Amino acid sequence: MNSPHPTPLKVAVLGCGVVGSQVVRLLTTQSEDLAARVGAPLELAGVAVRRPDAPRDVDLPAGLVTTDAEALVRRDDVDLVVEVIGGIEPARSLILAALESGASVVSANKALIAEDGATLFAAADAAGRDLFYEAAVAGAIPILRPLRESLAGDRVTRVLGITNGTTNFVLDRMDSQGSGFAEALEEAQRLGYAEADPTADVEGFDAAAKAAILASLAFHTRVTANDVHREGISEVTASDVASAREMGAVVKLLSICELVEGPDGPAVSARVHPAMIPLSHPLASVREAYNAVFVESEAAGRLMFYGPGAGGPPTASAVLGDLVSAARNRVSQVRGAAETTYADLPVLPMGRTQTRYHIQLDVDDKAGVLASVAQAFAEHDVSLQTVRQEGRGDDAQLVVVSHRASDADLSATVETLSAMAWVREVSSVMRVEGDTEGALS
Amino acid sequence: MNSPHPTPLKVAVLGCGVVGSQVVRLLTTQSEDLAARVGAPLELAGVAVRRPDAPRDVDLPAGLVTTDAEALVRRDDVDLVVEVIGGIEPARSLILAALESGASVVSANKALIAEDGATLFAAADAAGRDLFYEAAVAGAIPILRPLRESLAGDRVTRVLGITNGTTNFVLDRMDSQGSGFAEALEEAQRLGYAEADPTADVEGFDAAAKAAILASLAFHTRVTANDVHREGISEVTASDVASAREMGAVVKLLSICELVEGPDGPAVSARVHPAMIPLSHPLASVREAYNAVFVESEAAGRLMFYGPGAGGPPTASAVLGDLVSAARNRVSQVRGAAETTYADLPVLPMGRTQTRYHIQLDVDDKAGVLASVAQAFAEHDVSLQTVRQEGRGDDAQLVVVSHRASDADLSATVETLSAMAWVREVSSVMRVEGDTEGALS
C-alpha cells in the first residue's frame, strides 16, 4: 500500500543547551519540509536534560522532558538519537546504548569522536546503523560529507583549516587593532566569543580534535587527538603579528593535515599551531569568528569551504542535515557511507614533518654575523629562502625565512642560534604555511 | 558468504574529451582506493567516442573503444554510465536508454539537466536508479550534494554564484587591468579560458543553466533554464567597472536564486546578470577563472564554496565522487537521495524581482536637476539610498544608488530619466547585489 501518511520516525534529543534547543526548534518549525525530504514525518520522542527547570530558548512540551537519558535512548520506539551534550561521558555510553538499541545517531561531539571514534564506529557497524557528526567540525560548513563523499573519487593531499572561531577572532583582533593577546582575548570574552576558561580553544585542544577528524576522513586512516601535534596561540605576540604583516602575511591558528612521504612510504601528518600564511591565500581573508577549511586534492585542485563555525542555529543546521540523511536511510532500511580506515597510514611525528620557519633575531651589527647565522642553518641542513638585515645603531635585526625542512632540524637550528654569542635574542619564531607566491620572499 | 573479491561493477564512459579522458585516467590510477571506498572494484566496460583515432590525453585499451554508444549503454553487464558528451542529443537519449537498461548514471551535462531534468529524473525514479550530476555546476566544487543533503534540515533563502569561469576571468581582467570587454575577451581566448565562439559563456547561457539547477535544488521546485532571466557581460564597459571600483565594489556575472515573497505567497526568483557587489562580500575576492557559490540559509547563515569551476581533472573529480556514491548504492542495492520538487513554488517574472540599481547620469549642471531626477525615482516608487553629484563645468555627473525596488519600477525609472531634457546620457545602469555594509553608500 502506498500510504499517504507513513509511520513517523521518532527522534530523541540528548541535551538542550545552545545547540539542542535550536535542534528542537527546527524540528518543530520545519516539520513539513523535513517530512517531505525524509519521506516520513520526524516526531520528537523526548528531550533528555540535566535540569528540567533551566531557562531555555525553546518551549519544551512538558511531557517530553526527562532526566533519564539512558532510558530515553533505550526506548523501543526511538529511531534516531541526537547527542548534543558534549564531553566524553556520559555521551559515549549513551551513544553506544542508542546504537545497541537499534537507533541511528547524530552527534556534534568533536572531543568524543576525536578521542574514541573507533569504539563508536565499530558499534555503528555492529548495529548496522548510521553515526553522523557533520556538526563536530566547522559548525554549519558542510565539510565532512564533501570529504567522505564528494571527494571519494579523488586523492586529498592536504587540509588546512581555520576550525576554531575563538582563536580566529582573537588573532583577527590582534591583526586589525594591533592589540596584544591578553587584550584581544578579554575582548573575545566580553563579546561572548571566548569562554571564561578559554583553555580548550586558546591552547588548541578544540582545533586538534577537529584536525584528527579531518585527517581521518581525508586519508582513510584512524587519527586521534593524541596523534595531533598541538600548540596554542597564547604565546603569539603583537610583534609576531606585526612581523607577519610586514611580510605580507597574517597569523592564523591552523589545523593542518597532510599526506606526506614518510620514511617507509606514504604517511599522515596532523598538527595544530599558529602559522603565518600569505595574504594572497584564501584563508587569510577569513575574519572574525568565521571558520574555513581549505582542501587540496590531486584532481579537484584547491577548494575552500567557508562559513560560521559555531553558534546554536548554524550547528543545529548541520545536525539536522545529518538527521535527514539518517532518517532517509531508516526509511529505505539502509546505511549511509561509513568511515573507512583501509589506508591505515602511519602518523608522522612532528619532528619529521616538513615545514618552513620565519625567524626574527636581534643580533650585534658587525661583520660576519650574517655569515655565521647562515652557517647555523647550513649545519642543520636547512636551506634559506630569504634573509633580510636591518641595521639599527650597534644592533641589527635579521629576518630569516627558511625553505621546507624537517621540524626537528628547524628546531635544532633555532636552539643553535639562541646559543650564539652575537645573537641577543631570537625574538620571534613561527612556522609558515600555505602557498607563498612570493608574498613571504 | 563474505567474499574477499566481490563482483566488479562495470562502468561505461560516454565521451572521451577533456573530462572523459580524465575520468578514464582516474578510474585506472585510483582503482585500489576506489574499490576500497565502494566495496567492490570498478571496471571500465567501454568508452564510446565519435572518432576512435582522435588524439587523447589517456591511453584507451583498444578493445574497449566503441563508436556505438547506444549498444554500450544497453549492455546487460553495464552497472554505471558516465555521460560526459554534453549537449542535448544524443546525451538525453543515451541517459534514458542507460536508466531503462538498469544502469545508474553520472552526468556533467548542465545544459541537459537545466533544460529537461524533469524527463531524466522521472526516468531515474521509474528505473529506481541514481542520476547524479555534481559536475554540472561549478566543476570540482561540491555544491549540489551540500544543497541536497547537508542543508536538508535548513531553509535556503538565497544562492549567489560565480558559476562561469570564462566571464569571471574577463571581468577580473577588466577590473585589474582597466581593459575593455573586447580586449579582455581576446586575452581569455588566447589563454584558453574562452572558446572561439564565446556566446554560451559571455551571454550568460551557461550561468543560466547552472542557476536553474541551483534554484531547483535549493528550493525543491522545478526551475528550467527558460525560467531564468538572463543578461550577459558583453555590454559591460571599462567605465562600468571603474564606477564600481569608485564605489568600493566589483562587477561579477552572478547566478542569483532567491526565495522571495511573491504576490501569492513564497516564490522563486532566478536570474543571471552582471552586478556590482561590494568588495567586502566574500564573492568579490573570487579572481581569475575560479568559481564560488555563496549560500544563505536561515539557520546556517552565510556559507561559501570555492574552487576551480572547470577543467578536465577538477570536473573528473566531481564525476568520480558521484560515481563512487552511485556504485556504493549499487552494492547496497539502494538509491541515494533524489530530487524533490514538493515545494513547487511559482517562478517570479523578472519585473517583480526586487533589486537595487546603480545609475550614472551625465546631466546639465543647473539648479533643479537633482530635484527633478529625484522626482523621477519617486514617481515610480523607487526610494534612493544615495545620490552623489559632481559638477564638471557646465555639465555634472550624478551617481544614484537605489534601495530595493521591483525591477519593473527600476527599469521604468531609467526610461523616464533617459527621456528627460537635462539628462544628456544615462551612462551606466547596473544592478547591485550582496550585502552592502556601507560599501556602496
Automatic annotation (TrEMBL), chains A, B:
Its EC number(s): 1.1.1.3
GO molecular function term, any single one: homoserine dehydrogenase activity
InterPro entries assigned to the protein according to its UniProt record, in alphabetical order: ACT-like_dom_sf, ACT_dom, Asp/hSer_DH_NAD-bd, HDH, HDH_cat, HDH_CS, NAD(P)-bd_dom_sf
Residues annotated to bind NADPH: K110
Active site, UniProt feature: K210
Domain ACT: 358-437
Record-listed L-homoserine binding positions: E195
Pfam family, one: NAD_binding_3
Family to which this protein belongs: Belongs to the homoserine dehydrogenase family.
PANTHER family: HOMOSERINE DEHYDROGENASE
Name used for this protein in its record: Homoserine dehydrogenase
